[in-house]
Amino acid sequence: MGANDSLLSVQEQGNHAEIALHCDLTIHHVARLHASLKDLVKRCESISIDMRQAGETDVAGIQLLLAVHQAMKNENKKLHFSQPSNMLADTVKLLELENVLKFSTAAAV
User: Fold this and answer.
1) Element at 10 (helix H, strand E)
2) Strand, coil or helix: what is 88?
3) What is this structure's pTM?
4) What average pLDDT score do residues 69-74 get?
5) Amino acid 76: pLDDT
6) Domain count, the chain
7) Enclosing domain of residue 70
8) Of 15, 82, 88, 97, which is most buried, counting CB atoms within 10 Å of its CB?
9) Which helix (H) or strand (E) holds 19?
10) What is the pLDDT of residue 73?
11) CA of 78: how far to CAs of 13, 22, 56, in Å?
């Protein structure tokens, strides 16, 4: 099962979702992203999010990532962030959140 909109694309296989973001992580997009991600967190046991197209990031975007991370952790589910854009990686490092929002540079599997 797959779903696409202008902000993200989703491929679901069983209880796993592969997500590719296609937008900045800013207040302009967070409400729509939150609605989509909230539904996936409920349904899926594991989620991989490809972050390479996440350019500009503001506080709302960071809060969204932290909320998804916490929701998955609370349910003992697996979350994998991969291939962050340089801008996103720099923002996370600047906020000293790299030990919470752990990004891998390898593609999600």
Assistant:
1) strand 8-13
2) helix
3) 0.87
4) 96
5) 97
6) 1
7) 2-104
8) 88
9) strand 16-21
10) 96
11) 14, 22, 25
User: Which three-class secondary structure state does DSSP give residue 89?
Assistant: helix
Q: Is residue 93 part of a domain?
A: yes
Measured distance CA(90)–CA(76) in Å, rounded: 28
109: in domain: no
Q: What is the CATH number of the domain that holds 83?
A: 3.30.750.24
Average pLDDT, the chain: 89
Cβ(87)–Cβ(55) under 8 Å? yes
Residue 10 lies in a domain: yes
Question: Rounded to 10 degrees, what is the CA torsion of 37, 43, 45, 47?
Answer: -30
Query: What is the residue-wise DSSP string for 30-62?
Result: HHHHHHHHHHHHHH-SEEEEE-TT---B-HHHH
Size (the chain), residues: 109
> Which residues are within 8 A (CB) of 44 and not within 5 positions of it... i.e. 6 or more apart?
12, 15, 16, 17, 77
- 16-61 pLDDT, tens digit per residue, is 999 999 999 999 999 999 999 999 999 999 999 999 998 899 999 9
Question: Strands 2-4 and 8-13: what pairing?
Answer: antiparallel
